[in-house]
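Technical annex, item 7. During the second reporting period the consortium partners agreed on a shared format for inverse folding records so that results from different sites could be compared directly. Each record opens with the tokenized structure and is followed by the designed sequence. A conforming record, contributed by the partner at site C, is shown below for reference.
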């Protein structure tokens, strides 16, 4: 029946999603009639949101809790229990479908699926990290019609449509790409049970026994592993293609037999030393993917990195690196460079020995972007570049190089000021493929973009940080924009362009002007993050008024974040943001949110960096009377740690 309905039009297929995490957990508790057992959350996760699986396992758990506790404590036993125990015969149809699918799975997609258990269960995975790894492994390749990047994105979408990969939250993303994902818990366990047949991924966790059978192509070192050197050195690394480390790094992880390694992913690992990095660069000359993201101990890259001639991806985001070596210009296969940080200076300290040489160009403050050496224009394969401090890199030389990078899709820069802003925007006018742009202005240069035209019309994501009290009037060039991140010092009524001020007759509402009017005219805007130091009268009304009548506005908005250094009052009209699903607020105590009842699709209100219990209590009371059947929830979001997996301003995680 499904095949008949589908015909040749794939869009007629409706992909049935699993239950959301909280709904799945409530179902498990209801069926098992248990609510305070520690294993409930873990078992629910393993069920992957599949109602039938949840009901079967919850019923069994209610009868024999100790048996399931033992199953959870034994590696890879969960799926064996379901497949081999007659108690779960009702799931045979599901396993039959899964076995059939994996047998017939396209050769181009199967290795991408078998690769997923590299990431621990419930791990948040940046989409960009996963796709770039697939490219390095050769799973996503160039073809006559499309680049490896495009192929990888399509493969990612295929796994989303199969529900093997899930969005990290239930929020809609509109026209933007997913930043974070998770592997479906049930599918992950199934894949792991097949991994033993394929002998692909193997991991070190807890206390591992000494055995000669531990081998494969992809090694994962989990945070729980005891770092046993004897066990480690007994492993045959001759076939190893990737090494992924969670937790502490140890110098003995570098082995001379790892010469075929293509992927080294140390994102978030700690205790990595410069001497280890030098060994890595010397021995692993076939690396295509190198990520040191979040390795704060690393202050610079060795000049010998120029020997990694196969390198495609270099991610040194959120390290202490503030300048890239000259020899990086020898890496002509590089497609992706991520460096620098958007964190405040006190979160990512600049190494002391580098402060003097940078103080002239950044006023003694820590750089947001890195210093890029001359000659970067040789890297014509670059797809993603950022964050680069333009003024610290030598404006003229860098901008001449930038003009040669005509295949750039994503660009992030800092150090933009009144002396280089015109030249910068002229330089990027030749970047016809650019979809994502992130610009951070230097201090005391808030008005340097005024009057400068935007030479691009295909941007889908734009970040502008460090603005003063006026926005450049670019609305006509941003018709394709889906995501915007705006940081502005003052948000007043008229900070886009001058207008004639007339008196407002008594009893009539003032027409909407300024930033809100500007943003409301962006037809495709789905995600808006607005950070303001000072609001006029500490009030923000996001409705749009014309001739005393409210207009439909922000028609595609799914996620709205507002941050202010003081308390504020945010008001929503009857015709604004009708598709809004998440409202995120970061402000001082004493704030209020009015008109939430006018947001029919609202799913959650997130209070970020605030512990205002009074505001939370007020919101809960208001949302209890929300017209939506499933009431929106109120959550607190903790402040992020220094390693912040935020994106460059593009359509996904970088």
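Designed sequence (site C submission):
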């Amino acid at each position: 029946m499904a095949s008949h309905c589908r015909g040749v039009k794939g869009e007629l297929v409706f992909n049935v999603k699993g239950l959301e995490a909280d709904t799945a957990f409530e179902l498990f508790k209801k069926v098992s009639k248990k609510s305070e057992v520690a294993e409930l959350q873990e078992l629910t996760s393993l069920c992957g949101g599949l109602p039938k699986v949840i009901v079967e396992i919850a019923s069994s758990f209610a009868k024999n809790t100790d048996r399931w506790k033992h199953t959870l404590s034994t590696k890879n036993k969960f799926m064996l229990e379901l497949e081999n125990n007659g108690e779960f015969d009702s799931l045979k149809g599901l396993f039959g479908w899964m076995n059939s699918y994996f047998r017939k799975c396209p050769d181009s997609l199967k290795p991408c699926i078998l690769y997923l258990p590299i990431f621990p269960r419930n791990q948040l995975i940046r989409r960009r990290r996963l796709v770039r790894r697939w490219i390095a492994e050769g799973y996503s390749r160039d073809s006559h019609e499309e680049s490896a990047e495009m192929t990888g994105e399509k493969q990612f979408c295929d796994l989303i449509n199969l529900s093997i990969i899930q969005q990290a939250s239930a929020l809609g993303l509109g026209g933007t790409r997913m930043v974070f994902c998770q592997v479906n818990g049930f599918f992950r366990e199934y894949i792991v049970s097949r991994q033993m047949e394929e002998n692909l991924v193997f991991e070190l966790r807890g206390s591992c026994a000494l055995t000669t059978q531990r081998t494969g192509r992809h090694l994962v070192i989990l945070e729980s592993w005891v770092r046993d050197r004897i066990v480690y050195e007994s492993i045959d690394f001759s076939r190893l293609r990737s090494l992924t480390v969670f937790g502490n790094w140890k110098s003995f992880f570098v082995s001379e037999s790892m010469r075929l390694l293509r992927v080294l992913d140390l994102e978030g690992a700690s205790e990595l030393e410069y001497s280890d990095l030098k060994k890595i660069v010397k021995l692993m000359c076939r690396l295509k993917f190198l990520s040191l993201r979040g390795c704060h101990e690393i202050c610079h890259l060795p000049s010998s990195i120029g020997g990694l001639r196969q390198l495609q991806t270099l991610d040194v985001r959120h390290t202490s690196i503030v300048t890239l070596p000259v020899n990086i210009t020898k890496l002509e296969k590089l497609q992706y460079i991520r460096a620098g940080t958007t964190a405040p200076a006190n979160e990512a300290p600049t190494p002391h020995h580098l402060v003097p040489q940078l103080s002239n160009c950044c006023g003694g403050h820590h750089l947001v972007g890195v210093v890029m050496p001359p000659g970067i224009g040789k890297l014509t394969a670059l797809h993603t570049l950022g964050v680069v401090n333009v003024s610290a890199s030598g404006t003229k030389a860098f901008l001449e190089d930038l003009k040669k990078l005509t295949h750039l899709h994503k660009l992030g820069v800092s150090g933009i000021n009144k002396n280089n802003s015109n030249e910068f925007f002229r330089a990027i006018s030749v970047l016809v493929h650019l979809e994502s742009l992130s610009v951070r202005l230097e201090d005391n240069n808030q008005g340097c973009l005024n009057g400068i035209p935007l030479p691009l019309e295909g941007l889908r994501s734009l970040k502008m940080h460090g603005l003063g009290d006026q926005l450049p009037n670019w609305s006509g060039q941003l018709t394709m924009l889906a995501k915007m991140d705006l940081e502005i010092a003052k948000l007043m009524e008229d900070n886009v362009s001058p207008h004639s001020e007339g008196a407002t007759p008594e009893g009539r509402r003032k027409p909407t002007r300024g930033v809100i009017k500007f943003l409301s005219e962006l037809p495709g805007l789905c995600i808006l993050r607005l950070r303001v130091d000072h609001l006029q009268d500490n009030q923000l009304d996001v409705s749009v008024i014309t001739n005393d009548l409210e207009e439909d506005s922000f028609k595609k908005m799914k996620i709205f974040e507002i941050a202010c250094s003081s308390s504020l009052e945010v008001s929503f009209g009857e015709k604004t943001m009708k598709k809004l699903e998440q409202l995120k607020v970061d402000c001082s105590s004493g704030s209020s949110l009015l008109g939430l009842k006018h947001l029919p699709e609202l799913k959650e209100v997130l209070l970020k960096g605030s512990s205002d219990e009074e505001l939370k209590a007020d919101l809960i009371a208001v949302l209890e009377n929300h017209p939506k059947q499933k009431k929106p929830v109120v959550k607190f979001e903790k402040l992020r740690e220094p390693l912040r997996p935020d994106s460059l301003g593009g359509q996904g995680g970088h």
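The two ends are 41 Å apart (CA to CA). The chain is about 25% helix and 15% strand. All partners now use this format for quarterly exchanges.
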